[in-house]
Specification:
Elements: H1 3-22, E1 31-38, E2 44-51, H2 55-79, E3 87-92, H3 95-113, H4 122-127
Parallel strand pairs: 2-3
Antiparallel strand pairs: 1-2
Helix pairs in contact: 1-2
């Protein structure tokens, strides 16, 4: 694991803890930090998150995170020893939502074709 990877994990852990422990904002209760990408020069950090809920909840979380980003950055600076604390930007990660839609589509296809879904177990696949 390289230096940037370690910094990514450290920032991810600290941001998660900060949001969980420092803020009592109910909009942030169903939000999860998925990953962090810090630039090599440590100037910028993209923090990807997901939200359990509909579009209104996602927008509310985005607004809350945008307002809190400066404060979160200051708290990161107090907790992590880095030469430079990156500017942070929160980005909604749609990958979980897309995966769920794909799974549902596959289920519908299998129901329509009346065939059993493919098994993850290679031995069971051979038996079919």
């Amino acid at each position: 694991m390289g230096r940037i990877d370690k910094i990514n994990e450290l920032v991810k852990r600290e941001v998660s803890l900060i949001i969980q422990q420092e803020f009592q904002d109910p909009r942030l209760m169903f939000m999860t930090i998925l990953r962090v990408d810090v630039s090599r020069d440590l100037q910028h950090a993209d923090i990807y998150y997901s939200v359990l809920g509909d579009g209104k909840k996602i927008e509310a979380v985005a607004q809350s995170l945008h307002k809190l980003s400066g404060h979160i950055r200051r708290l990161i600076a107090q907790r992590i020893r880095l030469r430079h604390i990156p500017q942070i930007r929160f980005l909604y990660d749609q990958s979980l939502e897309v995966n769920a839609r794909m799974e549902e589509t596959f289920r519908e296809i299998h129901i329509q074709t009346d065939s059993p879904p493919p098994s993850a177990d290679p031995q069971k696949r051979e038996q079919l």
